[in-house]
Amino acid sequence: MLITYAAIGLVSLGVSALTLFSGFGLGTLLMPVFALFFPMPVAVASTAAVHGANSLFKAGLLHAHARRRLLVIFGLPAIAAAFIGARLLTLLSDRTALFVWEAGARRFEVTPVKLALGVLIVGFAAFELVPRLRSLRAPARWLPLGGALSGFFGGLSGHQGALRAAFLSPLGLSPHEFAATQAILACMVDAARLVVYGASFTFASSNATGAGIDWPLVGFATICAFAGALVGKWMLPKVTVGAVRTLT
Question: What pLDDT digit, counting tens, does each position of 231-242 carry?
Answer without folding.
Answer: 877 776 666 666
